[in-house]
Amino acid sequence: MKRDIGAIGALCLLLSEPAMAQMSMETVDACLTDAFSAQTSPNACVDLAHSECGGMPEEMHAASALCFTKTQEVWNAAIAEQMEVIRARGDDQLSAIAGIETKYDVLSALLQCDRMEELNRLTDQSAELVARQKAGCVSTAAGLAYVRLNWRARSLE
């Protein structure tokens, strides 16, 4: 019961502080621009975007999972927006390729998230921790798909 009250409190805290569940796509895009210019791996930009969600204390698994879920929604919206930018260029073949690549980037990553979830359920980890890890993995899948889509689009410029 004590753990349930802690989870409820953590969820209330998260909902009362919307900035915790908000990531800045401007910050992410600036990070990607820096990585593109320096020709370094842009994947650290996803870690940066997830730092608040992943940095929540252990007793806040539910709040962390919700944070990751909200972050995933931001990634998904950013992917849709980037696809619109690519479509606006008017190259139907390029748009189709970008759509297919992004679709399978996400699907293959989600398959790995499912695998990790199943393996984690075989351990003595709590259901809340497993849910937190799954939400983090799914958000990371969307983040990495955005990074790859963004990276490909920048390469075309």
Mean pLDDT: 87
Beta-strand percent range: under 5%
Give me the secondary-structure category: mainly alpha
Q: Helix count?
A: 7
Assembly status: single chain
Query: In which range does the helix fraction lie?
Result: over 70%
| Structural shape | globular
Taking the sheet with the most strands, its summary is: none
Give the termini distance in whole angstroms. Answer: 56 Å
Can you lay out the helices and strands and say which pair or pack?
Blueprint lengths: L1 H15 L8 H14 L5 H6 L1 H4 L6 H28 L3 H30 L5 H30 L1
Helix pairs in contact: 1-5, 5-7, 6-7
Could you write a compact summary of the structure shown?
By secondary structure, the protein is mainly α. The chain has helices spanning 2-16, 25-38, 44-49, 51-54, 61-88, 92-121, 127-156. Helices cover 81% and strands 0% of the residues.
Structure description:
There is one protein chain. Helix content is 81%, strand content 0%. Helix 1 packs parallel to helix 5 and helix 6 (92-121) packs antiparallel against helix 7 (127-156). The protein has helices at 2-16, 25-38, 44-49, 51-54, 61-88, 92-121, 127-156. Mean pLDDT is 87; it is low at 1-21. The chain is globular. It has 157 residues and is an all-alpha fold.
